Amino acid sequence: MDRVKRADAVPAEDVSAGTHTSRQILIGPEEAPNFALRRFRMAPGGGMPPHTNTVEHEQYVLRGRARIGLGDEVVEVSKDDVLFIPAGTPHWYEALGDEPFEFLCVVPNAPDKIEIL
After folding, report:
1. Residue at 100 is within a domain
2. CA nearest 78: which of 92, 91, 59?
3. Residue 1: its pLDDT value, please?
4. Is residue 86's pLDDT more than 80?
5. Dihedral Cα 48, 51, 52, 53, nearest 10 deg
6. What's the whole-number mean pLDDT along residues 69-97?
7. Does residue 64 register a pLDDT over 80?
8. Quick check: is 1 in a domain?
9. pLDDT given for residue 45 in this prediction
10. How many domains does the chain have?
């Protein structure tokens, strides 16, 4: 296991339910027992549809802007904003502006069922 690696060396995969959205698993369950660290990138106009997860999410916005639905609330976020999405909360993403929207997402290493709404 590498304790230090370059994030850009980690392969990205398309998020099948998303539009112009990719994900990297920067630190996965085979490397850390409790939490996974992921980086999401959405091209301008990209996003993810309304969905729920059975695990909580902690997110930190690295760059860009997005409109995010959190339950019944819609918020706009940008660089250096931090979000907490409790388990079971419906949420969605819509990248805004001319630059990619990028964020880090920490989740527990626990079984996660994703339901598209």
Report:
1. yes
2. 59
3. 61
4. yes
5. -40
6. 98
7. yes
8. no
9. 95
10. 1
Question: Taking the model in full, what pTM does it have?
Answer: 0.94
Domain that holds residue 100: 12-110
Tell me the sheet residues that pair with 65.
Answer: 78, 96
pLDDT of 30 higher than 80: yes
Dihedral sign (CA 67, 101, 117, 85): negative
Residue with tokens 């660290």: 37
Q: Which residues of 33-72 are buried (b: 16+ CB within 10 A; e: fewer)?
A: eeebbbbbbbeeebbbeeeebebbbebebeebbbebbeee
Tokens at 10, concatenated: 């980690």
Quote the CA–CA distance of 115 and 101 in Å, as a whole number.
23
**Rounded average pLDDT over 15-36:** 96
Rounded-to-integer distance, Cα 31 and Cα 42, Å: 26
User: How many C-beta atoms lie closer than 10 Å to residue 84's C-beta?
Assistant: 10
The confidence score (pLDDT) of residue 76 equals 98
Q: Is residue 3 part of a domain?
A: no
**Where do runs of H (alpha helix) occur along the chain?**
none
Query: Is 52 contained in some domain?
Result: yes
